[in-house]
Write a structure and sequence with these properties.
- The complex is a heterodimer of chains A (119) and B (273).
- In chain A, 25% of the residues lie in helices and 33% in strands.
- Chain A contains 2 helices and 6 strands; from the N terminus they run H-E-H-E-E-E-E-E.
- Chain A has helices spanning 3-20, 41-52, and strands at 23-33, 61-66, 70-73, 79-81, 97-101, 105-114.
- Chain A has a 3-stranded mixed beta sheet. A 3-stranded antiparallel beta sheet of chain A has the order 4-3-5, with no helix packed on it.
- In chain A, a hairpin with a 5-residue loop joins strand 3 and strand 4.
- Chain A is elongated and about 55 Å long.
- Chain B has a single domain, classed as P-loop containing nucleotide triphosphate hydrolases (Rossmann fold, 3-Layer(aba) Sandwich), CATH 3.40.50.
- Chain B has helices at residues 41-57, 72-83, 100-106, 125-132, 176-179, 181-185, 198-201, 206-215, 233-252, 261-268; strands at residues 22-25, 31-38, 60-65, 89-95, 112-116, 142-146, 163-169, 189-193, 222-224.
- In chain B, the strands form 2 sheets. Chain B has a 7-stranded parallel beta sheet, with helices on both faces. Chain B has a two-stranded antiparallel sheet with strand order 1-2.
- In chain B, helix 3 (100-106) links the parallel strand 4 and strand 5.
- In chain B, helix 1 (41-57) runs parallel beside helix 4.
- The longest helix of chain B is centred in the last third of the chain and has 20 residues, at 233-252.
- Chain B is globular, with a radius of gyration of 20 Å.
- Chain B starts with 21 loop residues before the first strand and ends in a 5-residue tail after the last helix.
- The model of chain B is unreliable at 1-11 and 263-273 (pLDDT under 50).
- At the A-B interface, helix 1, strand 5 and strand 6 of A face strand 2, helix 1, helix 5, helix 6 and helix 8 of B.
Chain lengths: 119, 273
């Protein structure tokens, strides 16, 4: 259950961004999550309102973008889809692969209202 | 997976790293900024700071992870008994409560700092940083950070360590790497502990455990150990001494060392470490 820590880190990021952009209120945020990030999406959704309460992101909608697991094979060079505990090349079956995506835990988009009306 | 090492950066999204990201106006009077920020970048920054501390003092740091009761502290005791004369060892202990583990280590004559996390299920880089202030880093060759017993959360937090060691005790079952892929994928070495129980358990196959590790695309060696029977301890000590030497070679060139899982992303995205 480290999802609350992760959400607090997310809110810190959003608050920094809101300061940089002189945002009055954050309306929505998009977070990309891969299965190999170690974060459980449903727990993240539950922890989020708790972490957001009393911050600039209170009430902002959290959209979670699922990132697929993909591996690149060092042996045959192909890229293929894989699952969390089977990161083998779908093309040649070799285990010597590198993860191309699926371990992300990133804030990608924040929608907000500015402090003053934009002229 | 972080801004710090840049492993998320690809040709397609590099422009998003510009300060402030890319702004756009939306229809409803609001604006949106597209960015690429790792959620744990604050932790990663602190971890980088820790790693820097270690490197300045020539301290080889190991993050020791496993489920509760897999034998992390027992392995440390055996390691101290075997190498205590040869290397200066120190330990940071993470637990929810009690000083028990730190006391066990101190009883071996080795400095130990206990972090009690309260209800937190993992150590993070900030907690480790605070603990570092209680250690005399100049006098240390190897620092073991014994994480909170947990096969889930500790895998997500970089502490600044140079290597990850994951223990799997045989009573837990040989399919743990398949059940907890995030943790086992992070391992630089897996120690199958309590192998003296193999004949009693009968259903643990070390070969199956290895197969599950390979399915995670991991080249990490899988060692079979028992502190009770002393089986395999020499292989563990050899691994440790070899990795320490490897670390020192890097240090002589002014480079650091990261758990192998981390530079992987860098290489993939065509960036330098």
């Amino acid at each position: 259950m480290h999802e609350l820590s992760v959400c607090q880190a997310l809110i810190d990021q959003v608050e920094n961004l809101a300061r940089e952009q002189r945002a009055r209120r954050v309306l929505s945020l998009v977070v990309g999550v891969g299965p190999l990030s170690g974060v459980e999406v449903s727990l993240l959704e539950q922890a989020y309102p708790v972490a957001a309460a009393g911050t600039v992101a209170e009430g902002a909608e959290l959209e979670l973008e699922h990132r697929p697991i993909r591996v690149h094979c060092r042996t045959c060079g192909e890229e293929s889809a894989a699952t969390a505990n089977r990161l083998l090349c779908a093309s040649c079956g070799d285990w010597q692969t590198d993860l191309v995506s699926g371990d992300e835990l990133v804030l990608t988009r924040v929608e907000f209202l500015r402090e003053q009306a934009y002229v | 997976m972080c801004d710090t090492c840049g492993c998320n950066v690809t040709h397609g999204n590099r422009h998003l790293l510009a300060p402030g990201g890319r702004l756009e106006k939306t229809g409803q009077g609001s604006e949106a900024v597209t960015v690429l920020r790792n959620l744990l970048s604050e932790n990663d920054r602190s971890a980088a700071h820790n790693r820097n501390h270690f490197d300045r003092h020539g301290v080889f740091a190991i993050n020791l992870m496993s489920s509760p009761g897999a034998g992390k502290t027992a392995l440390l005791e055996a390691t101290i008994d075997a190498l205590g004369e040869r290397f200066r060892i120190a330990v940071i202990e993470g637990d929810l409560e009690t000083e028990n583990d730190a006391q066990r280590i101190r009883a071996r004559g080795v400095p130990a700092v206990q972090i009690t996390t309260g209800s937190a299920c993992h150590l993070d880089a900030h907690m480790v940083h605070d603990a570092l202030h209680q250690l005399e880093l100049d006098g240390i060759d190897i620092l073991f950070i014994e994480n909170v017993g947990n096969l889930v959360c500790p895998a997500s937090f970089d502490l600044g360590q140079h290597r990850n060691v994951t223990l799997l005790s045989v009573p837990e079952g040989d399919d743990k790497p398949a059940k907890y892929p995030v943790m086992f994928r992070a391992a630089d070495v897996v120690a199958l502990t309590k192998v003296d129980l193999l004949p009693v358990l009968g259903d643990f196959s070390t070969e199956r455990a290895r197969d599950h590790m390979r399915a995670l695309a991991s080249a990490a060696p899988v060692l079979e150990l028992s502190v009770r029977s002393d089986a395999g301890i020499s292989a563990w000590l050899e691994w440790l001494a070899a990795e320490l030497e490897h670390y020192r070679e890097h240090a002589r060139r002014g480079e650091t060392l990261r758990p192998r899982i981390q530079p992987e992303g860098l290489r993939l995205h065509g960036l330098k470490a």
